[in-house]
């Protein structure tokens, strides 16, 4: 589903945020991306979502070389990826329902289908009762779940999450991770960036570790093998 | 606020255009505007002159013909010139009889009048045909200049409207920056993001045009009273013409087009600057 081949990212100013990154994530896999702050986790996710482009090397998503996707095609490419941010990126002047409905409106779905799918997504994150409220009235954990509902509402085959539990206490963090596990179980490829090692190490998923822009460890407890 | 500025910018050329239309009408309807004086040959008798007058009155392009006989001409001249006594000494009347021809309204363009003049001049009973249209030519030349000035003014004001709409839309884009970022993140196309701003531009242009219509309409209403009084002083019934349908339609269409184009340009320029990441 995701393949990095000697991918590098140099930001304007000359800083190498990613350096010669190689890895492959098969379809349906769930994995964590870890590393200290500044290691390049967000940058790696941005390359996948075409929020940034690799300066050298290649990134493939679903077999597609991202360097070949021209600017006007980017919106259509992004509709296949659900992205979840630490700061939620919700619209505070719209209700929970309208926030979650936005990807479907953008995709031009008819109104009746929209209601059905928004309710299904809110149900999955346990927020069905809150569809009519505004995001400000929700707790941090609830806001994050609205963000997840919005990311999954159009059933993308790939979910990316950047520090989704960054501001949450351990109990809420575990709940959020469980939601991701649920999606992984139904075949969605899930890549979660997090530096919360305590939480991650309790979970039986692959871990990609970045350090100073390099991939320094790649462990997978389910296969008991370690790749350098 | 934006709509008001657009309204004023649209009202100015529209109002001038309507005034120009009125000026054209006045100049056309001006009593004796382009009258042709036909000085008849001395050999033409009183009856022949009257017959010629009758013939001319039947022509479509002629509104009025008045006949001044040789005797009347002499009398008038004696009264008006102050040479009365000197002229009495003359044994023979030196003046020709005159037909004053008033071209019809629909045929009062300078070119048409010139054609008519040429035809009348060829009549064998006519000695000299003379047209006083110098001032009319000048008036038309002035109106031509005003019309060109109006075009330039309309162009400049159209540019103003574009800039005003563009600036308003730019501010609206900045206000909704977060929303635009989110929409881009979840796969919204530029067209999707552009649409609400185009609607905004459309409505600004539309309401601007409506405001302009109201302003011009009110101004004409206020002007029409004094103008009619003035016309009455000149024994001339003249009604200031209002905004006609064509002008109103053009006003609406140009308002809407300017609103749309202005917002399209603004969105095109500023949307690319907003990228998530
Ligand atoms: N837009 C940018 N321009 C310049 N440098 C950046 C930009 N984004 C990130 N960086 C730098 O790249 C490095 C990696 O950043 P990031 O990918 O956000 O790391 P992480 O998410 O692991 O904390 C950091 O040193 C950061 O300062
Ligand atoms: Mg980060």
Summarize the structure.
The complex is a heterodimer of chains A (228) and B (277). By secondary structure, chain A is of the alpha/beta class.
Structure description:
The complex is a heterodimer of chains A (228) and B (277). With 228 residues, chain A is an alpha/beta fold. Helices cover 32% and strands 28% of the residues of chain A. Chain A has two domains: 1-80 and 158-178 and 189-228, P-loop containing nucleotide triphosphate hydrolases (Rossmann fold, 3-Layer(aba) Sandwich), CATH 3.40.50.300; 86-155, no CATH class. In chain A, helix 3 packs parallel to helix 5 (140-152) and helix 4 (111-124) packs across helix 5. Chain A is globular and about 45 Å long. The two termini of chain A are 21 Å apart. The mean pLDDT of chain A is 92. The two termini of chain B are 35 Å apart. Chain B has helices spanning 2-29, 46-57, 70-81, 84-88, 110-122, 134-175, 177-185, 190-233, 245-271; strands at 36-40, 62-68, 98-103, 126-131. Chain A binds chain B through residues 46, 49, 51-52, 72, 75-79, 83, 89-91, 102-103, 106-107, 150-151, and chain B through 178-179, 181-190, 192, 275-277. Bound molecules: adenosine-5'-diphosphate and magnesium ion (MG).
Largest interface: A-B, 20 and 16 residues
Structural class call of chain A reads alpha/beta
The first-to-last residue Cα distance of chain A is: 21 Å
DSSP strand tally of chain B:
4
Quote the distance from N terminus to C terminus of chain B: 35 Å
How many domains comprise the coordinates of chain B?
Answer: 2
Our Rg estimate of chain B from Cα atoms comes to 31 Å
* Count of DSSP H/I helices of chain B: 9
Beta-strand content estimate of chain A: 25-35%
List segments of chain A where confidence is low: pLDDT < 50 over at least 5 consecutive residues.
none
Element order of chain A: H for helix, E for strand: EEEHEEHEHHHEHEHEEE
């Amino acid at each position: 589903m995701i393949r990095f081949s000697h991918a590098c990212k140099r930001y304007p100013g000359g800083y190498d945020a990613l350096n010669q990154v190689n890895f492959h994530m098969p379809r349906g896999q769930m994995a964590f991306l870890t590393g200290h702050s500044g290691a390049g986790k967000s940058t790696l996710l941005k390359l996948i979502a075409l929020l940034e482009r690799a300066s050298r090397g290649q990134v493939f998503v679903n077999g597609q070389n991202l360097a070949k996707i021209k600017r006007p095609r980017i919106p259509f490419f992004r509709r296949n990826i659900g992205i979840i941010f630490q700061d939620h990126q919700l619209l505070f002047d719209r209700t929970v329902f309208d926030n979650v409905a936005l990807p479907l409106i953008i995709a031009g779905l008819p109104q009746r289908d929209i209601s059905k799918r928004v309710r299904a997504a809110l149900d999955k994150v346990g927020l069905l009762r809150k569809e009519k409220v505004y995001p400000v009235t929700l707790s941090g954990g609830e806001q994050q779940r609205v963000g997840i509902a919005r990311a999954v509402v159009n059933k993308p085959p790939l979910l990316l999450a950047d520090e989704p539990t960054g501001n949450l206490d351990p109990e809420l963090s575990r709940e959020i991770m469980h939601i991701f596990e649920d999606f992984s179980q139904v075949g969605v490829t899930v890549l979660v960036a997090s530096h919360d090692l305590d939480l991650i190490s309790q979970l039986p998923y692959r871990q990609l570790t970045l350090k100073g822009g390099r991939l320094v460890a790649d462990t997978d407890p389910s296969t008991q093998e370690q790749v350098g | 606020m934006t709509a008001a500025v657009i309204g004023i910018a649209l009202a100015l050329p529209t109002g001038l255009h309507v005034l120009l239309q009125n000026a054209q009408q006045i100049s056309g309807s001006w009593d004796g505007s382009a009258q042709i004086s036909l000085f008849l040959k001395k050999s033409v008798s009183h009856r022949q002159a009257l017959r010629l007058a009758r013939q001319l009155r039947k022509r479509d392009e002629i509104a009025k013909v008045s006949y001044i006989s040789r005797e009347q001409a002499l009398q008038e001249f004696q009264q008006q010139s102050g040479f009365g006594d000197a002229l009495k000494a003359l044994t023979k009347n030196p003046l020709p009889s005159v037909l004053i021809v008033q071209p019809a309204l629909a045929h009062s363009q300078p070119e048409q009048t010139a054609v008519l003049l040429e035809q009348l001049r060829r009549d064998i009973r006519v000695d000299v045909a003379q047209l006083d249209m110098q001032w009319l030519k000048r008036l038309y030349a002035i109106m031509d200049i005003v019309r060109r000035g109006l075009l330039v003014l309309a162009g400049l004001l159209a540019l103003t409207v574009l800039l005003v709409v563009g600036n308003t839309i730019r501010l609206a884009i900045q206000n909704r920056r977060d929303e635009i970022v989110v929409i881009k993140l979840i796969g919204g196309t530029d067209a999707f993001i552009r649409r609400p701003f185009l609607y905004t531009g459309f409505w600004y242009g539309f309401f601007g045009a409506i405001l302009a219509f109201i302003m011009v309409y009110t101004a004409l209403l206020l002007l029409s009273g004094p103008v009619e009084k003035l016309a009455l002083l000149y024994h001339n019934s003249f009604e200031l013409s209002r905004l006609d349908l064509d002008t109103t339609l053009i006003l609406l269409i140009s308002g809407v087009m300017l609103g749309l184009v202005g917002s399209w340009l603004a969105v095109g320029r500023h949307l690319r600057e907003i990228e998530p990441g």
